[in-house]
Structure formats: C-alpha cells, structure tokens
Amino acid sequence: MIIKDYSQNKEDVLSLYRAYENFCKKADVSVNESMRSEAKKIEDEVFNLMILGEAKSGKSTFINAYLGREVVPMDVRQCTSAIIRIKNGETFQLFARTAGGGQTHEQGEKKIHEFLKEHAAISDEYRAIPVTTINNELLIKYQGRKIPEGEIDAFLAAEKGNDFCQLGEDRYNELIRQYIGKEQKNWQKIITEIEISYPLPEAMRGITIIDSPGTGANGSVGNIAEEYLADANAIIFVKSLNGQALESIPFMNFLRNVCKEKQKEALFLAFTRITDCSGRDLERLKEQAFEIYDKDIDKEKILFVDSKMQLFLNQCRVLGTEEKIGAYFTQLEEEKNAFDPASVCWYQSRGDVSKFIAAMEKKSAFGDVCAALEKFARKAHYIQLMNFVENIEQEYRSQKSVFSDSLQIAREHFHDPLALERRIEGKKKELDVVYNKINKEIDEIYNTYTNNLGDEGKVHQYADQLKKEYAEKLGKFKNFSSSESYDQTFRQMKKMTMDAIDHSETVRAQIVAEFLKECNEQLIRLEESDKISAEVFQPNFTESDFDKIQKETEKKAEDKAVKKILTFKPKRDPYRFREEHVRLVEESVSRRLDEEIVPCMIDNAIKYITECRNVYMAKLTEHEKFLKEEHGRLLQVKDDNEKWQQAIERLERNLSMIETEQKRTSTAKGVLSNYV
User: Fold this and answer.
1) Can you list the residues of the chain whose pLDDT is less than 70?
2) In 120-168, where does DSSP find H-type helix?
3) Rounded Cα gap, residues 583 and 589, in angstroms
4) Distance CA 240, CA 248 (A)
5) Average pLDDT, the chain
6) 295-301: Cβ within 8 A, 24+ apart
C-alpha cells in the first residue's frame, strides 16, 4: 500500500509528541502551543493522489486495482466533465454536484454504480468528440444562452487536431455541433464533481484519490481539475501500452504547458497492460519509453504495471485458501471469462498460495507504484515529520538548558540560602541585560532586510532580481501570431507566470530562513560574551507558526496575494480573438510589474518578515519568563532543607527524562533520514 511505511513513521513521530506532552505534565511546564497545532496538522494530514490519462487508458481499472476493490465501475464511460474524489468514509456513499448548483446523494454500491452509468457517463454516440472541453468551454460558460456561430467555428478550428478516432473533419465537426445543439439547454445538469466515500483499508485512510476526466490532446485538464492539481501531493498519468502509440502527446503537452515546476517532482507516468506484451517486447518498450521521456521525467518515475493482474490478485487475497482460489479460476473458465496471465500463475504455483501471490505481485508490478510514491511523492511529508522531530528535540534542549542551569545553582548554594538568593537575583539581572541586547540586535538585522531607503534592503534586492528574470521570460510572448497554437501559447504563459509566483514564494521562504538564521547566530555570539546558553532563548519555529504568520500577513497586506493580480481568465470569446488576447495579457502583466506586482510582492515579504520578528521576540520573552520562573521556584524553598532536596531531585528527574526522550528522537531522525 502507498503509505504503509509512512503511516508507521507518522505514528512513531506522533508517539514522540505524546511523550513530550507527558513529560511537560510531569515536569510541570507548559506545552508549546505551536507544537500542539503542528501535531494536529500531521495527524489530520491527507495525501491527495490525482490520476490523469488519455481516453481508454484504463484509469478506472488502475484506481480500483490500487484501492483493492471496485469502487469506480470499470464499465462506465468517461464521466462527463466530472472530477471524482474518493476518500475514506464509514459507508459507501456518493455526493454529486452539477454545473447549475444541484446536488445528489446516493448510498450503497448498487445505487452508486447505477447513478454513474445513468447520469455521469458519455454516451457511445459522442465518445469520439471532446465532450469535456465542449462542456467547460461552451455549454457551462454560456449557461443556456445562444452560443455565437463565430465562437463555434473558432472552437472547431481549435479542436481540429483532437480527432483521435479519425472520423474525418466533416463528421467530427457534425458530431460536435449535434452535441452542442442537444445539450445546450441541459447545461445545469452537467455533473462537475463527484465525491465517493468508502471504508478504505487502514493503511490507506489518509489518502484522497482524485480521478480527472480524460486529458485533451493539448494537455488541458479543465478548470476544475487545475484547481485540484494545485493541492495534489502526487500525480499519476496513466497510459495503456495496448493499441496506442508509445509516445503520449497529451502527456507531453500537459508536462510542458500545464504542469508547474514544483508539481513535476511528484509526477509519474504509468504504462498499463504490460501482460499483453511478451517479456522481450516489454523490455524493448521500456527502453524506448526511457529514451522518449528521458529529458522530461526521471527514469524512476516511469512505471510499468498491469491493473487487471492486480485486480485478480486482490480478489484472490480475499478468497484466501487454495480451495476457494481454485474454484474461482474454474468458474472463470466455465464462464469463458478467464484471464490467461493470472490463470497461468495459478496453475504454475500448483496450489501454493504464497508462491502464487508472489508471482502475481511480480506480474502486476504495483509494488513499484507504491515504492515510487513512497520515495518521491511522500518526500515533503517526511521532511515535515523530520522537522517536527527536530522541533521536539529543540524543546528538550531548551528545557534541559533551563533545568541544568537551575540545578547547578541549587547544588552550589545548597547550604547557603542567602548566597542562593543573591545568585538568583544576579542571574535575573543578567537575563534582562541579555534580553535587551538581543532585542536591539534583532532590530538591526531586521532593518537590513526591510530598509526602503534607496531600495537597499535585501527584500528589495531579491524582488528586483525576480522581476528581471520574469520580464525576460514574459517578453518571449510579445510576438505571438495567429499561426501559433493559442491553447499551448496561453497555457505556457500562464504556467510560466504561476511558476514565477511559486518561485517568489520559495524565495520569500529563503529570505525568512536567512533572517532567522542571522538572529540565531546573534544569540550564539551573545552566549559567548554573556555566558548564558543560547538554547535558553532560541525560538522553536514550527510549520504551524509559519501558517499563522502567513494568515496574519494576509490580513495586513493591501493585496492578499500576487496571484490575484496575475489573472489568466480567458476573455468571453477567446476563440475568436486569440492573437489579441495573448498580447493584451502580456502587455497587461508587463505594465503592472512595476506599478502593482513587484510593490505588492515587496510589501507582502516585508510584512511576513515583520510578523516573523514579532513571533521571534514573543518566543524569546516566553523563554526568559520560563527561566525566571524556574529560578523563582528555588527561592520559594531556600529555607526548607527537605523541600530543597526535593527540588534538586525534581530537576535531576526532569533531566533524566529529557535524556531518555532525546535518545528516542535521535533514533527517529535516523529512520526518517532514509526517506528524506
């Protein structure tokens, strides 16, 4: 299963957090609230796996094979314009939403399958035309109003290259016009989203599978699917080895014109129906595939599987025993529904179930899918787990520093309460001095990043460099001509811009990381001069802290996101005014770079760093308060020898617990490093 390893590692990390909470309770210290939020975030985390593919690629079979049973009916034609989300739930139920805002709820496997066949499938009559594109670009857009003839003509010209069934231009165009005329008034009933919940196996309950309508020849996936793509942790593009060319034009166009750079890290190409090929032919096809896609996708992300073989394996696992499996294959032969590759595996195993399962697993190769997803698509989640373990470690280091300092003072002044009191009062004054120094130094560092005079601040310098890089790329679209593909050109410009936005957010994160690093380095320098451990003060930032900082920044920003400026919504009649539309978008973005986009970016980054500084100083204050309170506890028992001894024992016990938990966190980091 995809996240068997991840589930176990996730639980191990959460157990470390629960141990940290238990320690805080025993040591009578407060739990860091951002740690609590981060633990909840990890616990509730969902893995979004999006499945794309060409028509007749076997997406539904692949999904069912992966899930372990038939959740999506495999005899249903491609769902019209609909995204299907499959997630864990207590019962088998379906929610469907239409373009007109209507909703449908069905329960039970039989009713759900009947609903999909009746309401969410493309009829055989129109399977050869781009129904999904027609629905999205014409029917839903015009909402029952008359579609201008010029718009339809422009649409036909744009879709000319998508006649996969080779109907011929006249018949192809005739079917499109016929479909538009028939369905134009029924636009409200077009199903756009379907959500299916089902009791998934325990190891897969954190997964949401998103089944997208077939990908167009130009790589387009539709507006709704693009929204889901933004949150996908992994994307699998399914392509059949049977009856199709090895090179996938839709995949290449999707990769180059739609898929953003950061999404490519989690993009996989899965070839299905490998048992249709002989061993020698399959090896030859693999070599060809690696050559074709060598420059666009890593070899390890090109997978070869057989969904049907996996479906048979899933069924046989349910049957379990030699007798039941044997009877199952006999029944299939009698009904003339036998699948020869699976039957051969069974008869060659001679009733040895474990040998049969091993042979089937090798033939289906679905283990390669799970391993690849675990290795690449889960990387960000493993990094999150690693960071969280390091946050736990930092909590222990900070508390250890405080307890060690208090224990040292207690042991040195055990028999002299007056000397103890003088030492603690002196210690508090030292803390005040150091805190004031830190505050001043942090402000000076902050100013080097946010200085507006002469645009000398680091934020301005980074923004100017990003603007220059983006402007150069945008300039390539100035000379667009009507002879070029509008769809690809427009999508390339949109993709390039969205990549630039993602890059600007990455750069902002780098700026913040540099800022926090400089602040922490200043703490270490103060430690050397003032002999107070930097661990006492060093703030512990979690992802949840950054989430809150982001929300606070958006509240204060004049424009919440650059993305709202860089809109790429087509004009109402893009098919008739394509050349003009591309130029208008390019000119608009170019003009607004200096006027709005870059100033917004700078403003947002400065506000973000300001919030980081505020949180940093708040955490410093919390740590200072914690240390003073711990020293204050010693003063409360300075005249009572019995309580005094108990205080020393408490501190020693706390330090012993920390040492034990630090060993556990160190071991966990070693395990997680294998995945990161």
Assistant:
1) 1-4, 55, 74-81, 161, 164, 216-224, 415, 452-455, 477-488, 526-537, 556-586, 588, 638-639, 641
2) 131-134, 140-142, 149-158
3) 10
4) 10
5) 83
6) 296/252, 296/255, 296/256, 297/255, 297/264, 297/267, 297/268, 297/269, 300/372, 300/375, 300/376, 301/267, 301/268, 301/269, 301/372, 301/376
